Amino acid sequence: MLGAIAGDIIGSPFEPWPIKTVDFPLFGEQSCFTDDTVMTVAIAEALLAKEPFDFVSSLKAWYRRHPHVGYGKTFARWAAHPTDRDPYNSWGNGSAMRVSPVVWAFDNLDEVVRIAGASAAITHDHPDGIAGAKAVAACAFLARTGATKDQIRNCAVSYYGSRMDRTLAQIRPGYSFDVSCVGSVPEAIIAFLESESFEGALRNAVSLGGDSDTQACITGTIAEGYYGGVPDLIRVEALRRLDSGLRTVVLTARARWSGTSRSLPA
Question: How many domains does the chain have?
């Protein structure tokens, strides 16, 4: 979960000014959390309760606390509406950027995929939106439970087929901003697959020159589990950039889910 948040913060300065290199400062004055982090925390807070998880109320409540951190227009209209609880058929990558808490809250792949789909469908009920959340959650769960990169790639192929048959060198030159799950999730997974460290994975994602904060968020979701956590420097810097409310939920979730074995929240 913190891997996703770190990716969001590190990628945030490069969404308006995309780059095509892995050589950039990890943190600067403009490195800040965005809607990716806020919605990740909202999903985490909902999961800290018992089923049925009220994802809708949590997303809307956290939107009200942080209404100006870069939401898409359609989501913002939905989140600001006091009574609208219906999904709006989105195929965007918002479903994938916020799914990381599901990966850590459950210890069963089928459960992770099921809840990931449910967390997406409250807004992103288009098949592509649901698939994006499931793909990221499944790959990240495999990563945190000892799967090889070949196994993780095969999982991604089951969702995205031949879109996984590319390298960063092939993708990067002509790639640009794309908020669709189909056009951003496979690329974020490939950024992880070609990495050799957690930091390297985030650098790969940002270097695509696309939706940098969200793609680094997605890449960080998978890389955190595979590389055994978030490096200390990045962890400290990411937590420092959260406000107390966000930080409290992150630390509570980490404490609750660290080293536990369960199929449903206690």
Answer: 1
